[in-house]
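We emphasize that the prediction below concerns an isolated chain of 193 residues; any contacts that depend on oligomerization or on bound cofactors are therefore not represented. The input was used exactly as deposited, without trimming of termini.
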Amino acid sequence: MKKVSFILLFMVSFFLMSNLIHAQKKEDRIGIGVSIGKEITLEEGTFTLLDFPSFYVTLIGFSYFRVEPEIGYYRYSSSDENLKSSHEILSVGCGFFYAIRKEKADIYFGIRLGIIQTSSYFKSPLDEWDRSKIDFYIGPALGAEYLFTKRFSLGGEIQLNFISIGQWDGDLSAENSESVVRTKPLIFVRWYF
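Result of the prediction step, given as a token string:
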């Protein structure tokens, strides 16, 4: 049920921003893109390096306003004769930016916000659990892209995200809230219609 609500949030943010489509000018663009980035997270006392792509719908309107709904998914599972585990992350968010056009380059700055659902499953002969949590993130972002052609661009972005870390389902021991601030560098490839 939670996954369905994340997908619905993504779709609603996409359709709310679709009014940019109706007010098209020659400078307005609609595109899709993918980002590759590395982020380090601290979970249960260990550092984890995550590297999975997120997909973006880029809506640029009025030649200066830019909106980017995003969705990312990661799943890892392993099993042998005694142990079985899986880890799944679904990230849904949106970015709101002011963009400046300089010849074939776009420079943009603004804010990204969203939610991250994490689910984990573990089974051994002695123990079995299935748990999930929801984290929220918000933070400023600065990026640039170079348009090699009218339809193809390559760019980069740096984010400084504040993340409010949720509690695992059924975790009664964690009474205090947790948060983390992290940087997140990304490389983008975008294709415009």
